[in-house]
Design a protein that fits this description.
With 785 residues, the protein is an alpha+beta fold. The chain contains 19 helices and 24 strands.
Length: 785
């Protein structure tokens, strides 16, 4: 078995020799590369100069000049070959020696465009490096190339000399390093050997043994510490194993320091607390243990030496991983036989658990304060009190997310007999974003819906494992990285109408505290209050709307009765007036005049009958007693027929009707007389509001499922806020009230007739003035007789 001295010598020698050898080889390689690079640069300069000197001789094919250039070139050392070639690769001049390169065939000729090193040739007298360079005239036109061969003999000799000198130096260095290694091994091994023998002697019971080594290095310090240890062991009266048993049984962390602040003894509690091994602390300064401050600096040690102990001081220790640990620290001095302070005993108790309890209690108080502030903020929030539930929901989710410090808070409502949950508002804290309209079905999440019906908060620390929420794992929890959930039911009058869902996002689970559960239920109650405020405001708005509608209906009815009274009186007054004229003047007037009286009476009677018929038609339509006769009819023919009825009236007012229709419109099922009545009403209104000499545009077209009729005049049009109300009973456009007349029943009757045909009718305003009234009838209807 090799001794320590041999091992140290072998390892140090091997490391030194390896290092010197590698450095020498790298130096040699670098030097050879530099020599070769300089040689190559020199050859490139020579061949470039030779190419410029040969340019004129190549152009005029002056062989003698070229040969003189070659002779001049050979004045340079190491030049052993030169040749000149024209643009066609023809050799014009060369040295008198044998050719180095074989003649290249013309088909294989490649133009030489730049300086290049062809190859190293070893067969020509001595190894040489061949360079070639293109030749250009003054206009940079390629005219040929030159070749120059430079001998490598001298550079090879120089490199060999360098290698020999380097190897000599390397051998000398290896010998010197070996001697140094031997001396180092001897200086380290001999003291260790002496200490080893002394340790064996002390182990055998010879406590008076000491080591005589005087050195000013670590080995000298080790020798002094060893001799000091043996002296202290000689004075010990209690067995070391007994003391170790006492120290090992202590639950508090203990260590002993010398008067200079060096750690001398530790127990297992201290080592376990800090994560050190015993050898990592023994002999180290005590400041390695303390975190924020060194309680055993020079001043503190002086006070301890004066019998001024430290008792239960709250401070921190620093573990091996630099983690700070809270402790209660105590320290006191320990004297020797002469009652002189020789050591200091330090004891500490780990108070991490108590600190955590204090922090936990402090956090709980902070949470409660924050939660109470948030609830108070919600209770006094004007948005919630105003009844704007959409904005109230956004406010509540934001407050809950901030108070619980979670990423997602959402409000869901039950519907479809409590089988569906629909998200009314989802707030994402980081993005400060709101969204809605997500839907959850009972058949997909039966366990969650079952838990929700229990009318209790769903408190889930591990949402991916809890049976109530693990149904959400693949489609909801995993994609969104949701770890924990706290859902509080929303109750109104004892019934669960929805839920407030609080979701913790992240890799770690969230352990919900009791106060957080109570807070989530308070948030759910705030949602319920907001809903009740919203419903109350909504009910008040509906009452207000109903009141306004009733007032409008009463006003419209009053206007209708006044208007109807006027409309009925006008034809009735005409009938009575012309009948009175006939009675008074029947003996004096001519037969022609009597005929005019009867014609006036007939016309007024028809107007009166039309008014009465409208009233009767409206009553029948509202009561459902109007009889319809459905048959397949050509609606195009109906439109033509009604337009012809208005020919006389159109001529009197000089109004033109433009009728645009599609010949491919099929027959559809309808009540002929009722649809013609609708068309008459619309055309009559158009004529009524068209200026003299105006144009009325009538169109009949087909869509995918309907036939569409539209009529447009160029009158005053309908105010935008009246486009829907003009179809109500007794309602006339404000423009109608200006003198155009009418009862306001025509459009209402038309709407009822179109609805009975499963169609729709509507009004629009077009640019340039005028109203556009349209209706659609389905190509296929279900009623047919």
């Amino acid at each position: 078995m090799l001794n320590l001295k041999t091992k140290i010598f072998a390892i140090v020698s091997l490391l030194v020799i390896s290092t010197v050898t590698i450095v020498s080889l790298l130096f040699l390689k670098n030097l050879k590369s530099r020599v070769y690079d300089e040689f190559t640069k020199r050859g490139s300069l020579i061949v470039d100069h030779f190419a410029r000197r040969s340019m004129e001789g190549i152009l005029i094919e002056d062989i003698e000049t070229l040969e003189q250039s070659i002779k001049h070139l050979f004045m340079v050392d190491d030049i052993v070959y030169a040749s000149v070639h024209d643009v066609d690769n023809v050799l014009l001049a060369k040295t008198a020696t044998v050719d180095i390169l074989t003649q290249t065939k013309e088909s294989e000729f490649q133009r030489v465009d730049s300086v290049s090193t062809i190859e190293t040739i070893n067969e020509y007298q001595s190894p040489l490096l061949l360079f070639q360079n293109p030749v250009f005239d003054e206009d940079q036109i390629y005219v040929g190339y030159v070749q120059v061969g430079v001998s490598l003999e001298r550079i090879n000799i120089e490199i060999e000399n360098i290698v020999r000198r380097t190897m000599t130096i390397l051998i000398i260095l290896i010998i010197v390093c070996s001697l140094i290694s031997l001396w180092v091994a001897d200086s380290i091994a001999n003291p260790i050997k002496a200490l080893t023998e002394a340790s064996k002697s002390i182990a055998d019971g010879n406590l008076d043994h000491s080591v005589d080594i005087k050195r000013n290095d670590e080995i000298g310090d080790l020798t002094m510490a060893f001799n000091k240890m043996t002296a202290e062991l000689n004075e010990t009266t209690v067995s070391k194993s007994y003391v170790n048993d006492i120290l090992g049984s202590m639950t508090d962390a203990l260590f002993v320091v010398t008067v200079d602040g060096t750690i001398q003894t530790t127990n297992s509690s201290l080592l376990n607390m800090l994560g050190y091994g015993e050898s990592e602390l023994i002999g180290k300064p005590a400041k390695i243990i303390f975190g924020d401050e060194n309680l055993l600096d020079g001043t503190a040690l002086e006070k301890l030496g004066e019998d001024r102990p430290i008792k239960n001081l709250k401070t921190t220790y620093k573990s091996k991983t630099l983690k700070k640990l809270p402790v209660l620290f105590s320290a006191s001095a320990m004297g020797d036989r002469e009652r002189q302070t020789s050591k200091f005993v330090c004891v500490a108790q780990d108070i991490t658990h108590w600190i955590r309890l204090e922090d936990s209690d402090r956090e709980r108080r902070d949470r409660l304060h924050r939660q109470q502030s948030m609830i108070l903020q919600l209770v006094t929030n004007k948005t919630i009190l105003a009844g704007d539930f959409k904005q109230a929901a956004r406010t509540i989710t934001e407050v809950a997310a901030d108070a619980l410090n979670i990423e997602r808070v959402s409000i869901w409502f039950l519907s479809d007999e409590d089988r569906t949950l629909t998200c009314d508002d989802l707030f994402e804290k980081t993005a400060r974003k709101h969204s809605e309209n997500m839907v959850l079905q009972q058949e997909s999440y039966p366990e969650y819906f079952k838990a929700l019906r229990c009318n209790l908060a769903i408190r889930v620390d591990d949402a991916k494992r809890d049976p109530r929420t693990k149904e959400f794992k693949e489609g909801y929890l995993d994609p969104l990285d949701i770890a924990s959930m706290l859902d509080a039911p929303i109750r109104i009058a004892g019934d669960v109408i929805g839920v407030v869902c609080n979701e913790h996002v992240g890799p770690e689970l969230r352990i919900w505290h009791d106060d957080e559960v109570l807070f989530s239920e308070d948030i759910a109650n705030q949602v319920a209050h907001a809903i009740m405020h919203f419903r109350r405001e909504q009910a008040l708005e509906e009452l207000q709307i109903q009141k306004e509608n009733a007032d409008a209906a009463n006003t419209a009815k009053s206007e209708f009765l006044a208007n109807m009274s006027h409309e009925l009186r006008t034809p009735l007054h005409g009938i009575l007036s012309f009948a009175g004229f006939g009675i008074k003047k029947h003996t004096t007037v001519t037969a022609e005049k009597t005929l005019q009286y009867f014609q006036k009476i007939e016309k007024s009677g028809h107007i009166l009958l039309s008014l009465l018929n409208n009233l009767l038609d409206l009553a029948k339509l509202e009561s459902g007693k109007m009889e319809f006769v459905f048959n397949k009819c050509d609606i195009d023919v109906l439109v033509f027929t009604v337009i012809e009825e208005f020919d006389t009236l159109m001529s009197e007012r000089n109004i033109t009707i433009n009728y645009i229709h599609n010949d491919s419109i099929p027959k559809i099922v309808l009540d002929r007389s009722k649809i013609m009545q609708v068309i008459r009403n619309l055309l009559s209104n158009a004529v009524k509001f068209s200026p003299t000499g105006g144009i009325i545009e009538v169109a009949l077209s087909r869509t995918k499922h309907h036939v569409k009729f539209s009529i447009q005049d160029h009158g005053r049009g309908i105010p935008e806020d009246e486009l829907e109300t003009v179809f109500d009973k007794f309602i006339q456009s404000s423009n109608t009230k200006t003198g155009a007349g009418g009862t306001g029943l025509g459009l209402s009757i038309s709407q009822e007739i179109i609805k009975s045909h499963q169609g729709r009718i509507w009004a629009e305003n077009r640019g340039g003035g005028g109203a556009l009234i349209s209706f659609e009838l389905p190509l296929k209807v279900f009623r047919y007789s």
